[in-house]
Amino acid sequence: MKLHKLLLMVGALLLTSLCNPVKAQLFKGEVFGGVGFAQVDGDDCYGYKRIKGQVGAGVLLSPKDWLDISMEIVYNPKGAFKRDSISYSSYKAGSYDLKLNYMEIPVMVYFVDKYRYSIGIGASYGRLIGFSEKEYGQETDSHIGDGKLRWKEGYSGKDLGYIRTLADLNDPDFYDSNGNLLIENSNSYKKHDFSVCADLRVRIWRGLHAQLRYQYSLAPIRTRLLYQDAAGNIPSKIRMQYNNQISLRVTYIFGEDLTKLNKEIQKMENQQNKK
User: Fold this and answer.
1) Looking at the DSSP assignment, which residues form a beta bridge with residue 238?
2) What pLDDT is recorded for position 100?
3) Is 159 part of a structural domain of the chain?
């Protein structure tokens, strides 16, 4: 299903939940905002130093008192940031600044404890809608693509998507007559990111909740080739890159009190029907 169709579906369900309190025992709307602390595993820039705001909305289905199922729309920036240098032998690389802007659709299952504590697990689809990458303060030539390693300009050959370790580079077809490597870094990031999510939600007051979420990519967003030398002829390691993020946010759930009231009314009606 295309992204815009999913956005329309979630938006329609959200409007339904807000405009029809009779159905609040089944559907509830939510809005949220917060801060994400992100890094990209595999780039050798450590720490959750990419700090950006995130906003979104969603719909919760509550088939049981102890169960919520949610679908969200989230604008969720990720990436990596580093000021100081990274040393590869005698070669030093300077600052690094990666911004990855995603529109995401997480689907979560929450186990609810008396409407106060909720523990959630789920998965999210993210579409990369924009990004920028700077090394040494200069924009790189990266773009949205397949995230694979590439041949140096003027060379071509077999598909490089299978390369995962240095052992995969032992093929003599990857080197020229002088022993120089003919493969270089990927210059693209995948436009799709599928991730797993874990969530803790605590009710503060009425429909207001504090929320902590951890999210990690299920598949690499890029293959990174690191070198021992500044010229890029001697590879040192191959790293698969993954989005890694911790988010803190405040969520307001509409109709949570109506949900309790409707369930009490439904319980009374069921008792009367049995008489």
Assistant:
1) 225
2) 96
3) no
CATH code of 100's domain: 2.40.160.20
Distance CA 272, CA 214 (A): 46
Residue 240: both structure tokens together: 């698969």
For 111, 253, 267, the CA distances from 25, given in Å and listed in that order, are: 16, 13, 12
Q: Nearest 5 degrees, angle CA 77-CA 82-CA 86? A: 140
Per-chain mean pLDDT for the chain: 83
Query: Contact, 99 vs 50, CB < 8 A?
Result: yes
Report the pLDDT averaged over residues 107-111: 95
Contacts with 267 (C-beta within 8 Å, 6 or more apart), sequence order: none
Residue 89 lies in a domain: yes
Question: Which residues lie closer than 8 Å to 9 by C-beta, 6 or more apart?
Answer: none
Domain count, the chain: 1
State whether the Cα torsion 14-15-19-20 is positive or negative. Answer: negative
- When pLDDT is cut at 50, 70 and 90, the band that residue 226 belongs to is confident
Question: Per-residue pLDDT for 12 more than 70?
Answer: no
Q: Which of 57, 53, 69 is nearest to 108 (CA)?
A: 69
Taking the C-alpha atoms of residue 18 and residue 29, their distance in angstroms, rounded to an integer, is 6
| Token pair for 9 | 């579906």
Higher confidence at residue 82 or residue 243?
Answer: 243
Strands 222-227 and 188-190, sheet pairing: unpaired
| Residue 236, in any domain of the structure | no
Residue 253 domain flag: yes
Q: In whole angstroms, what separates CA 204 from the centre of its chain?
A: 26
Here the tokens at position 117 are 């504590």
Residue 93 domain boundaries: 3-136+188-224+243-274
